[in-house]
TrEMBL record:
<dbReference type="InterPro" id="IPR002028">
    <property type="entry name" value="Trp_synthase_suA"/>
</dbReference>
<keyword id="KW-0057">Aromatic amino acid biosynthesis</keyword>
<dbReference type="InterPro" id="IPR013785">
    <property type="entry name" value="Aldolase_TIM"/>
</dbReference>
<comment type="pathway">
    <text>Amino-acid biosynthesis; L-tryptophan biosynthesis; L-tryptophan from chorismate: step 5/5.</text>
</comment>
<feature type="active site" description="Proton acceptor">
    <location>
        <position position="38"/>
    </location>
</feature>
<comment type="similarity">
    <text>Belongs to the TrpA family.</text>
</comment>
<keyword id="KW-0028">Amino-acid biosynthesis</keyword>
<dbReference type="InterPro" id="IPR018204">
    <property type="entry name" value="Trp_synthase_alpha_AS"/>
</dbReference>
<comment type="subunit">
    <text>Tetramer of two alpha and two beta chains.</text>
</comment>
<dbReference type="InterPro" id="IPR011060">
    <property type="entry name" value="RibuloseP-bd_barrel"/>
</dbReference>
<protein>
    <recommendedName>
        <fullName>Tryptophan synthase alpha chain</fullName>
        <ecNumber>4.2.1.20</ecNumber>
    </recommendedName>
</protein>
<keyword id="KW-0456">Lyase</keyword>
<dbReference type="GO" id="GO:0004834">
    <property type="term" value="F:tryptophan synthase activity"/>
</dbReference>
<comment type="function">
    <text>The alpha subunit is responsible for the aldol cleavage of indoleglycerol phosphate to indole and glyceraldehyde 3-phosphate.</text>
</comment>
<keyword id="KW-0822">Tryptophan biosynthesis</keyword>
<dbReference type="GO" id="GO:0005829">
    <property type="term" value="C:cytosol"/>
</dbReference>
<feature type="active site" description="Proton acceptor">
    <location>
        <position position="49"/>
    </location>
</feature>
């Protein structure tokens, strides 16, 4: 597996800094070799997210972003770009919107996967049934605190890929990749037949290179948002282009 090219997944917060900016950011990401994009529907209490993404959520909500706006934007992106698009959000968004309507609208929009960090599968039986019937992959999360038994259960329950959290805590802080991390990823690999994505603290080309041969997908989140805040939208393309020597062939289907 060491010679296998690692895929890139990026993260944006919808409506931040604006939907027009989101369009430009997505276009630059796709043009520079991103294989999959995770679009976060903003929520007032994003418990898994650090200060950079938290602020982006709050600013987007303050600007009036609605769930319907996000789904329509997802439809536009899926129709425009030939890579998979996912939604990431928190369960209260689905609950208030209506689970069945949410999945129906995601399916019609061409959204291929859904990450809900605060919804364990035991509490989401309707969620799993809707995901299967609407062909929207339910993506679950491994963490360093997960037992092998828990990983095995999540690995069999989820679809698309498994999101492996690189470390304890929230998004944004740079991760370290020592022996403990390698052992953790080896356990993740043994626990599922699905591809493995690694996120939380992946910030530069060295981090991506460190994951090659250990994971299938590197996830870049807070760093891109931080870059837009500091240098503007036009800085995204060169940053993405520098994350690996050459872009991998996009994989259209998650399911």
């Amino acid at each position: 597996m060491q010679d296998k090219e690692i895929l890139l997944m990026t993260h944006i917060v919808l409506g931040y800094p604006s939907f027009d900016a989101n369009r430009k950011i997505v276009a630059q990401m796709v043009e520079n070799g991103v294989d999959c994009i995770e679009m976060q529907i903003p929520f007032s209490e994003p418990m898994a997210d650090g200060p950079v993404i938290l602020k982006a959520n709050q600013d987007s909500l303050a600007a009036g972003t609605r769930v319907a706006d996000c789904i329509e934007f997802g439809r536009e992106m899926a129709a425009t770009h030939d890579i998979p698009f996912l939604f990431m959000t928190y369960y209260n968004i689905l609950f208030k919107y209506g689970e069945e309507k949410f999945f129906d609208d995601c399916s019609k929009a061409g959204i291929q996967g859904l990450i809900i960090p605060d919804l364990p599968p035991e509490m989401g039986r309707d969620f799993l049934q809707l995901a299967k019937s609407r062909q929207v992959a339910p993506i679950f999360i491994f963490a360093p605190t997960s037992t092998p038994q828990r990983m095995a259960y999540l690995g069999k329950t989820g679809d698309g890929f498994i999101y492996c959290v690189a470390r304890r805590g929230v998004t944004g802080k740079k991760s370290e990749f020592g022996e403990d991390f390698s052992s953790y990823l080896a356990t993740c690999r043994k626990s599922t037949t699905l591809p493995i994505a690694v996120g939380f603290g992946i910030q530069d080309s060295e981090d991506v290179a460190a994951l090659k041969g250990k994971a299938d997908i590197a996830v870049i989140g807070s760093q891109t948002i931080r870059l837009v805040d500091e240098k503007g939208v036009d800085a995204v393309g060169p940053f993405i282009a520098g994350l690996r020597q050459r872009p991998a062939t996009p994989q259209k289907e998650l399911r």
